[in-house]
Amino acid sequence: MSAREQILGKIGPLAEVKHPGAFHGASEDFDFKASLEVVGARVVSPEELERLFPDRQRFEKTLDGLSLAEVEVLEIDGEFGVAENGAIWLTEEALPHRVAPFICQHLVIHVQKIVPNMHAAYMELTNQTTGFGLFLAGPSKTADIEQSLVIGAHGARSLTVVIHA
Amino acid sequence: MLSHAEASENFIADAERTDWHDETLWFVRAKRDKASKVLPEWEALREHASQVKDHTLANLGDYLVAFEAKAKANGIHVHWAADAVEHNAIVHQIIAAQGSKVLVKSKSMLTEECHLNDYLAEKGIEVVDTDLGERIVQFRNEAPSHIVLPAIHLKKEDVGETFHEHLGTPKGNKDPQFLTEAARQHLRGHFLASEVAITGVNFAIAETGEFVVCTNEGNADMGAHLAKVHIACMGIEKIIPKRADLAVFLRLLARSATGQLITTYSSHFHKPREGQEMHIVLLDNGRTRQLADPKYKNSLKCIRCAACFNTCPVYRRSGGHSYHQPVAGPIGSILAPNIDKKANADLPFASTLCGSCSNVCPVKINIHEQLWFWRQDLMAAGLAPVGKSFGMKMMAYTLSNPAIYRMGGSLMRRFSSLLNSSMNPWYKQREMPQAPKESFQEWYKKR
Questions:
Q1: Phi then psi for B53, rounded to 5 degrees?
Q2: Which one of B123, B125, B331, B386 is separated from B408 by 20 to 30 angstroms, measured CA to CA?
Q3: Max CA separation in chain A (angstroms)
Q4: Interchain CB distance below 8 Å, A134 and B266
Q5: B228 DSSP β-pair partners
Q6: pTM score of the predicted model
Q7: Which residues in chain A have their CB less than 8 angstroms from residue B182's CB?
Q8: What Rg, from alpha-carbon coordinates, does chain B have?
């Protein structure tokens, strides 16, 4: 008997419990900009961005993630931001490569649209069929050494967000 | 193998370090409180998540089959493993087909449960753990002591020493910023070179066949997106029905784990990237047995946030290694006896049954009750330590015989030095109260 049959065979019938359905009553009063700062991102105006990263680059689609290993400042577009936690939804369609927002040293994201919370975020993703997508909240970080927060573990060392909404 | 109590004795021998460990984890617990209390709907979220998990467990077979069909349609290879041996063999086969000798792995407690690293090492394959905490303990040939903070038992001096030895950082440098940078450079080399990447899975969605991996460092993504082959290993209980359910779970997970609003990266793997091979291994390893037992079924709702570790007065003061299991703490103490009752018979007793674990659990697992159920089962199975079984029998006998109880009380009052000696384990590290001259009954009779 295959492992699949064994496992499924061992799962006997249990008393039915209903799925609770959609979550209602979620708070909506959040400030995207404030959340971004909590997660360690920097929010700037288009003018400030120009001053900070005049050499930032956008990249064409590539199948070779390694070709992005030397990218210093990557500029991309986020699909929307989530006010409650500063997360930005990115899909591979808007990225040169799936590894792009991780492998670059610094990341710049433009956000045109903001939703209040994660429930609203997943409403946006109802018909999403992308092969890879992620919520990205701030720069890469770790606190694995004595709980001291260090920014820039393996992914981008900084996240700069320009809000156009 | 040392029992929890024996291993704890070694851990607390260093009082200063014990206090530090205790306070550091309590600090994480306090961050969790702060992050949860800003949401007025927090308790409703917990209840909702608990119900989604109850519903999923009641229909686990159907959801697994639905997930498999969707994932396959998405171009993902799906494998089933009845136990750790099968799991490791499947993973090895995939790696061998690729011909890799070194690979990267992000955090996966499931692969710890299966002892995958040791298994692959025997086959001549080196696994490089890429989570910073996990890399640190891997260098030291230790196991993670916490499922979210693997190196929480170590001080920065220890990490500095370890990195000096393995990465050639300057001796005596213990700056977390500097040491993290050294690890970044060291691991980047591995990310760029690895053809195979292994990750864990936080959630797998039956509706869409996608799976979600959460990290703060970005190590799972660095590995998976650069490798030709991505192997994701998950327990069958990681399934949730719908994508929209993720809203509730992602809100609960990071706030419960570290007090963050959300983990830095919540990556949704839906289809392999062009030219990539993607595999999912679904592991049982005793989970269906746990599911079939109404007393312990709920333990499968766990989302591995470790809030129960951080709040537990016993975990904080005994350290993760004392639990001699990949998943320590209160949740580990109710999961481990299902896998091996005899070897883990000490764990359900490593608790004060204060119930704080159940209070902070984001999916409302009745952890402290299950600890108590296990104690009963282990006693009934004759697996409790001899001293404990004997003591419990003596206690039951004494308490059910008023005359013996009175005599015992009077003897103990007279020879209280017997209790205040190293013969009494409860006496260690404690100041015992003075025994009164007379019992309540004697005093009451006189008035």
A1: -70, -40
A2: B386
A3: 65
A4: yes
A5: none
A6: 0.96
A7: none
A8: 24
pLDDT tens digits, B36-47: 999 999 999 999
Rounded to 5 degrees, φ, ψ at B390 are -65, -45
Residue B392: pLDDT band (50, 70, 90) is: confident
Question: Is residue A42 helix, strand or coil?
Answer: strand
Q: Do A86 and B261 touch (CB under 8 A)?
A: yes
Residue B419 identity: L
Sequence-distant (6+) residues with CB within 8 A of B442 are none
CB–CB contact A132 B131 (8 Å): no
User: How distant is the Cα of B421 from the closest Cα of chain A, in angstroms?
Assistant: 37
CA distance A77 to chain B (A): 16
Which of B219, B268, B291 lies closest to A11 in CB terms?
A: B291
Q: Where are the beta strands (DSSP E) in B263-310?
A: 265-269, 277-283
N-terminal to C-terminal alpha carbon distance within chain A: 57
Contact call for residues B180 and A152 (beta carbons, < 8 A): yes
pLDDT digits (tens, 9 = 90+) for B93-144: 999 999 999 999 999 999 999 999 999 999 999 999 999 999 999 999 999 9
CA–CA distance, B67 with B235 (Å, rounded to integer): 13
Chain B residues touching residue A81 (CB < 8 angstroms): none
> Of A3, A118, A129, which has the smallest distance from its Cβ to B251's Cβ?
A118
CA distance to A149, B18, B38, B401, per residue, from B155 (Å): 14, 11, 32, 52
d(CA B366, CA B364): 6
What spatial distance separates the first Cα and last Cα of chain B, rounded to whole Å? 55
Interchain proximity A15–B152, CB inside 8 Å: no
